[in-house]
Write a structure and sequence with these properties.
The structure is a single chain. Helix 1 packs across helix 3 and helix 3 packs parallel to helix 5. The radius of gyration is 18 Å and the shape is globular. The protein has ten helices and eight strands. The chain has two domains: 159 residues, 3-Layer(aba) Sandwich (Rossmann fold); 68 residues. It has 233 residues and is of the alpha/beta class. The protein has a six-stranded parallel sheet, with helices on both faces. Strands 2-3 form a two-stranded antiparallel ribbon. The longest helix has 22 residues. It binds magnesium ion (MG).
């Protein structure tokens, strides 16, 4: 059994900045920060790491209490932001997911810095949530490699609940694939021994991704034959 992990923002979809907008509105309305520090990077990072950096940068305590308060405010604004910003599913995504599912030997999951409930709302908004029965999320972990380890643990839980044949096959023939749009995705993929596919449909242009040495770089996920080919290599 293969395991394919996908990133969300810049890989499966573009929210048109809905996530960042909900971040900014929460910091403004709930924490009195009118404008967020533009030097804090969002792409490829966990929601918790971004929020903690913003707290520090604006003189707030990076505490669990502030994180919980922020999380609640962010989720309460996310759906409205998703509607207002009108993003889109990236080209080739539904066909790639269908092609992976049609093989019958690939378990599909998420490896994302989004908090789980944020991921669910973003993907539900674009009717993609049903594809992902397991994954690793940015609720607890700051580092993406820790999210990758949690994603692997969740994948194993998911696969062990399946038929004996699938489990036996999984034990001998497991191959892990990580698909993402930033060097962070490739780096964390390596940390769990995965092969990595990079796609420059988010914030990182192709030369930046190439420097991070993915196994395959495709211009968009419409070109999914090289991705399927990795699974059989
Ligand atoms: Mg991304």
């Amino acid at each position: 059994m293969h395991i394919c992990f996908l990133d969300i923002d810049g890989t499966l979809l573009l929210t048109g900045g809905a996530g960042q907008s909900a971040f900014a509105d929460t910091l403004s309305a709930d924490f009195g920060i009118p404008e967020i520090d533009a030097n804090v990077g969002f792409a490829g990072r966990s929601d918790k790491a971004i929020a903690m950096d913003l707290f520090r940068s604006h003189g707030l305590e990076p505490s669990e209490q502030n994180w919980r308060r922020f999380r609640e405010g962010y989720l309460s604004r996310l759906e409205k932001a998703l509607v207002a910003k009108q993003g889109s599913v990236l080209p080739g995504v539904p066909r790639l997911l269908q092609a992976l599912a049609d093989r019958g030997d690939v378990a599909i999951g998420l490896l994302t810095g989004n908090i789980r409930e944020g991921a669910r709302r973003k993907l539900s908004h674009y009717e993609l949530w049903h594809w992902f029965p397991f994954g690793g999320f940015g609720d607890e972990h700051m580092e993406r490699c820790d999210i990758a380890a949690a994603a692997m643990a969740d994948a194993q839980r998911h696969l062990n609940g399946r038929s004996a044949a699938a489990t036996a096959n999984g034990a001998t023939n497991r191959q892990i694939l990580v698909i993402g749009d930033t060097p962070h995705d490739i780096h964390c993929g390596r940390s769990i021994g995965a092969r990595c596919v990079a796609v420059p449909t988010g914030n990182s242009p192709a030369p930046v991704l190439r420097d991070a040495q993915p196994d395959v770089l495709v211009e968009t996920l419409e070109n999914f034959e090289p991705i399927l080919a990795i699974l059989d290599r």
